[in-house]
Structure formats: structure tokens, C-alpha cells
Amino acid sequence: MKISISGIKEILSRKINFSGKTSSDAYREMEYRRVITVNDNSEEPQRAVKLISDGTGKSSITLSPMKSLSLEDFSFPFSNTTKISEALKLQVMPFTQAGEVEIFPVILNRSGRGANGIVWYVSPEELDVSSGSSNKVWPAPLPFISQLEENDGNGVTMWTDEENICSILWQSRKPVMYRWRKLSDDKSPSRELEFYDSYCKSLEIERGGNFIVNASNGEDVNEDFGEVVAESIEICPWIGDINLSRSALEGARDLERTVRTLTRVALWLLAAGVLMLGAETLKYIRNSEKKLAVYSRSEEYYRKTFDPERRGRISNPVTLARDRIASLTGKGDERHTIDEVLSELGEIFKGFKDAGMTIDIIRYNSEGIDCNGTAPDMTTVLNFRKSWESSASLAQVDNTQFVAGIGYRFDLRVRW
Q1: What is residue 318's predicted lDDT score, i.e. its pLDDT?
Q2: What is the pTM of this model?
Q3: Cβ(305)–Cβ(348) under 8 Å?
Q4: For 52, phi and psi rounded to 5 degrees?
Q5: Is residue 52 within 8 Å of residue 28, measured between CB atoms?
Q6: What is the tally of structural domains in the chain?
Q7: What is the CA 141 to chain-centroid distance, rounded?
Q8: pLDDT digit string (tens) for 98-146?
Q9: Is the per-residue pLDDT at 332 higher than 80?
């Protein structure tokens, strides 16, 4: 099957916004004009390139019959685009001594964490067929897969012009081979089809159909051209993601450099954070050890000073210290026995017999006594405290609380 496109070096244009994914409907509104493109990096003065663009030429798709292009499928257990590119670079590294090669991976399917697709290999010299960041470059036979639907996406799409024959072999709507030949008497579309017949026979597969685009005559552009491209985009949407141009390559490299720079910065910040966390952790551990050492040393000194023979936990260090001081100074509890304390309390309480005060609880120890009681007013409480000053070193009201119908509850602490 052939489609005749007039003797052109470039086929233009469509009114599409390339800022997002291109819809297939936009291709049906294509408008074409004829342009000539020259590749300055090529040894040949002129190359046939087919361009689809809007009227200004700022957004375009170039169909290029690349000479050095080849493709291969891939499958990896990861789907990160950067990791896939790095893995593919490692695969082709042994072959780069023959010349520099650029790679353009295209992911077709993602399954779980893995991904599979195809990768295009091309010489850097063929990346200057288009200029501008909005321009896309496709292999010339690529956007015609729709014409193989009668064969379930199996067959050959071929592009021919005054100088080139290039073709893609498809299997189940997936490109499996790209081939370029210089047009001559012994290199013709029919000879290429014979090659594919032989190749497919060796693999024991059916070649399928074929679709040939002839861009070497002087007829007008076929009006069905846009429809063919639009149908191909509907069948294989991933075609719209392909861009074999230098601007796309440089953009990918800029993005990769930015990601690497940000990754390095993030790693340095993470390392600094880990070091700071480690330093603060060590500081905390050392302070905790010093704190425990101070506690242990304080307890050791306290035991040596006040009670060397005592073992176990010290429940009330203040009481222990006072008892020890009292025993050393001879001011123990021999002068303030329980009988003496009760006798003294009775004498003092006689002065408050008619004051309406009651003592509810008395707690006695070697240091003194603690009284809990009630009184009708605060004056009575303060006078009761003052009555102990002549015989005690400390007489202190620790807590008072007014209770309706009862008066003031108080706690009195007396120490000898």
C-alpha cells in the first residue's frame, strides 16, 4: 500500500498546542506547506526531512529518515526513567568505541515495580534536523502504524524520498526493527520487502502487511495524510512521547544534572543532620553519666557522714541527718519522750479549753510532733502556734483551710 506525498523536503503543519499531550483529533486539522531543511552537521549538503508544524514553525514534528538509527526492546525490574537510562548506557558502553551513541528510552508498559519498552539508538550527528524546544523529531516511518491494523499491527511501514529508504518492522503494534538504505537501482522498496520476507521467515514469523509513503514525486499532498497520523496516535499513544532531537536530549541531561545536584545537596544535608544527631546523642549520654556519677557520689558522701553502717535506700535524708546530729550532740529524744510531749501539750491546751479548738491527730517522732486540728478562727490557730515557741526551736503552721460549719482546719509542725 502506498501514499504519494508531493516532491517535498518538509511537510507542515497543524494547529496544535504542544504544551501538553497531543490529542489525535488535532492531527486531523493539519495544514501542510513545503519547506527545505538542511542539516549542517551532516557531510552531505542536504537531507530529506518531513516536517509537520503550525503556521509559525514554532511548534513542529519532523519526520526524519535517520541513517544511524536502530532500536531494541528492554525490560527491567524497576520503572524509574533515570535508572533505566543508566542501565541502557551500561549496556551500550562496550560499543561506544566505534563512535558516540545517544539513547532515547520509551516505556510502553509498567507492571508492578518493573517496566518494559523500546530504546532508540542514534548518532549525535543526526540530532540537528530540527531546532527549538517545541520541535519533535520522529523516525519517518513511525506514525503510519494505523495502516497495518488489517494485519493486527504486524507488517512494515516504509518511507521513501529522493535519497532515502527507511522502514520499521512491527509485531503486534510494537516496533522491532528499523532499517535505512540509500535509494539506488538495487535498493528499492520492493527489495526491502524481500529482505523483510527473508528475515521473518528465518524467525518463523509472518511479515504481515506493508504501507509505503512515497515522498519523491511532485504531486500535491494527500488529504488523508493527517487522518493516517491521527489514527496511529490513537492506536499507539506512546508515539506522541517520542522526541529524537538534540533539544530533548539536552533537556533530559539538564534535568538529570539538576536531580543529581539536588540529590547531592539532600545527601549532604542528611549527613549533616545525622552528625548533629549523633553529637547531641553523645552529649546527652555523657550528661546522663555525669548526673548519675554526681548522684552516686552524693549518696556515698552522705552515708559516710551520717550513717556509714546503714544499707539500702535512704527514704528521708533530712530525718536521718537530724537524728545523726542529735545523737552526736547529745540532744536526742531523751528530754522529749512521748510522756513529756503529751504533758506539755496538755499544759498548753488548758489555755484553749474554752476556745472551741480540738486536736484530731498527733504524730510524734524524735524531731518533734505534727498536729492536725480545728479552730473557730485564725486567731486561735496563731495563738496555739505561739504557745510552743518557748519550748521548741520551730513552731510553724503549714496549712490552713476554712470549712463551713466547722471553722479552720490546720496543720502545726513543732520541732525541738
Answers
A1: 67
A2: 0.55
A3: no
A4: -115, 120
A5: no
A6: 2
A7: 39
A8: 568 888 888 888 888 889 999 988 888 887 765 554 577 888 889 889 8
A9: no
Check whether residue 56 and residue 195 sit in a common domain: yes
Does 317 map to a domain?
Answer: no
Residue 24: other Cβ atoms inside 10 A: 17
- Of 197, 163, 199, 169, nearest in space to 181 by CA: 163
C-alpha distances out from residue 31 to 34, 35, 132, 158, Å: 11, 13, 20, 23
**DSSP 8-state class, residue 351:** T
pLDDT at position 295:
84
Average the pLDDT over 312-325 and give the result.
63
Burial class (CB in 10 A: 0-12, 13-18, 19+), 1: middle
Give residue 130's pLDDT: 58
**Which of 205, 227, 244 is the last residue in one of the domains?**
244
Neighbours of 243 (CB within 10 A): 21
Please give the pLDDT value at position 85.
Answer: 83
Who's near 95: CB < 8 A, 6+ residues apart? 101
The whole-angstrom separation of Cα 144 and Cα 235 is 10
Residues 215, 361: one domain? no
Confidence of residue 216 (pLDDT cuts 50, 70, 90): confident
Take residue 126 and report the three cell numbers written for it: 543526526
Which residue, among 13, 118, 170, 136, has the nearest Cα to 63 in the 3D structure?
Answer: 136
DSSP 3-state assignment of 234? helix
Query: Which residue, 136, 130, 182, 191, is CA-closest to 160?
Result: 182
Of residues 40 and 25, the one with the higher pLDDT is 25
Enumerate helices (H) and strands (E) in the chain, giving the number of each. Answer: 8, 15
Which residue range forms the structural domain that includes residue 376? 338-415
Give bridge partners of residue 401 from the DSSP assignment. Answer: 409
Q: Residue 315's pLDDT is what?
A: 57
Are 253 and 82 a contacting pair, CB within 8 Å? no
In angstroms, the CA 145 to CA 95 distance is: 31
At 363 the three-state DSSP class reads: strand
